[in-house]
TrEMBL record:
Name used for this protein in its record: Zeta-carotene desaturase
Lineage: Eukaryota, Viridiplantae, Streptophyta, Embryophyta, Tracheophyta
SUPFAM superfamilies: SGNH hydrolase (SSF52266)
PANTHER family: ACETYLAJMALAN ESTERASE-LIKE, ZINC FINGER FYVE DOMAIN CONTAINING PROTEIN
Keyword Hydrolase: yes
UniProt source species: Salvia splendens (Scarlet sage)
First and last residue of the signal peptide: 1-23
Keyword Manganese: no
């Protein structure tokens, strides 16, 4: 063993001891992971909701081709951020609520692909069609039904929820995506944002009132860097794009959405001192992954191109990923984008490396 190797080993041991000491000081016992959200965290609910679910793309290959090798209902080639959160906490992966055969011993996932934070009636009154299943209020209803099945008194339920880390979102992205795909302007959609974040804050408040004390509320990604937005805005006016090639105005909308969400969360923190309400910055974690792409072994020429090459971005159309005529790259590990709406396992893994280690130390015990 030469000097540099032994030095590295010693350094490593010291760091491990330091980290372990820190960990015993700050880690709260988290026994359960609960998730509400949309397709960014759906691990198999939407594909089980009849009648449409089983025909959705995520019920077919190439979804799941990297992990676990067959489709699970995850909208990616493999793992999602919630999977990396579970792994980081040393918990088993969290099963979808609508898999009635599954164990929920260490958590339960209520997220449904296509879910909006606002309910369908908000959009219907504005002439916008969104899925009628899965919205945040319906997920809260599932949450309450589930809670009633495992505890019967407020102290008992409080005891269960106090040991849980609860992800409320990402949710709210679809409240922008559906109006955008139905031709609404960014200016109009901007006026929905305070309502979207009020719906998220209201749901978070309801979960806290049920007894939860540790909640994580992620913001939206820079949607202007997503293929479905790039396609919707495709144009040869170079001033529309930022230095990364993303649609500036769409990213600005996501920035406003996220800052408005943080204001709503700050008000909740004042309402519930002693409850941890952690904002997670998916926006910058994505951009950092994008900027460090070459270092991470991602192919820099396809950073804005999906691995599964959907020719349009309506899930129900035969030109969307999951249909036999849609080509799939052989190396999803070199891509950020999976199907144009969702990211690859590799992107979620990198993003998780930025955001997950920041969550636990900020939890109040
Ligand atoms: C539960 O398991 C049975 C038998 O394996 C299967 O037929 C059924 O589809 C499963 N139910 C759900 C909701 O996954
Ligand atoms: C939708 O949300 C609004 C505002 O919270 C509520 O008044 C209404 O009852 C909800 N509609 C449905 C169908 O759940
Ligand atoms: C949030 O809750 C407030 C107070 O109950 C209510 O007035 C408002 O309509 C709710 N907003 C949404 C979007 O659900
Ligand atoms: C930009 O697009 C317009 C309309 O599609 C076209 O007429 C024009 O020639 C294009 N300009 C360049 C520089 O490609
Ligand atoms: C990156 O992707 C391009 C386009 O698919 C391809 O031609 C090139 O060989 C790839 N580079 C590497 C290093 O894999």
């Amino acid at each position: 063993m030469n000097f540099s190797v032994s030095f590295a080993v010693i350094l490593n041991i010291c760091v491990t001891i330091l980290v372990a000491t820190e960990a015993t000081k700050i880690l709260c016992p988290i026994k359960t992971l609960i998730q509400l959200g949309d397709s960014l965290s759906d691990t198999g609910n939407a594909i089980r909701l009849l009648p449409v679910g089983p025909t959705l793309p995520a019920a077919r290959l190439p979804y799941g081709k990297t992990f676990p090798g067959l489709p699970t209902g995850r909208w990616s080639d493999g793992r999602l951020i919630i999977d990396y959160a579970a792994m980081g906490l040393g918990l088993p992966l969290v099963n979808p609520y609508f898999n009635k055969n599954a164990s929920f011993r260490n958590g339960v996932n209520f997220a449904v692909a296509g879910a909006t934070a606002l309910n369908a009636s908000f959009f219907l009154s504005r002439g916008i069609i969104v899925p009628s299943v899965g919205s945040l209020d319906l997920q809260l209803r599932s949450f309450r039904t589930y809670l009633a099945s495992i505890c019967s008194t407020p102290p008992e339920c409080g005891d269960y929820l106090r040991r849980a880390l609860i992800f409320v979102g990402e949710i709210g992205g679809n409240d922008i995506n559906f109006p955008l795909s139905q031709g609404r302007s960014l200016e109009e959609i901007r006026t929905y944002i305070p309502f979207i974040n009020q719906a998220i804050a209201n749901a978070t408040r309801d979960i806290i009132r049920a007894g939860a004390t540790r909640l994580v509320v992620p913001g939206n990604f820079p949607i202007g860097c997503f293929p479905f937005v790039l396609a919707a805005f495709s144009n040869n006016d170079s001033t529309m794009y930022d230095e990364l090639g993303c649609v500036r105005s769409a990213n600005n909308l996501a920035i406003y959405q996220n800052s408005n969400l943080q204001i709503a969360l700050e008000a909740l923190r004042r309402e519930f001192p002693g409850v941890s309400i952690i904002y997670v910055d998916y926006y910058n974690a994505f951009l950092t992954t994008f900027r460090l792409a070459p270092l991470f072994g991602l192919n820099r020429t396809t950073l804005l191109t999906p691995c599964c090459k959907s020719r349009q971005y309506n899930l129900l159309n035969s030109e969307f990923c999951g249909n036999p005529t849609v080509p799939v790259c052989s190396n999803p590990g070199q891509y950020i984008h999976w199907d144009g709406l969702h990211l690859t396992q590799e992107a979620y893994r990198r993003i998780s490396q930025f955001v997950i280690p920041n969550i636990l130390p900020t939890v109040i015990c």
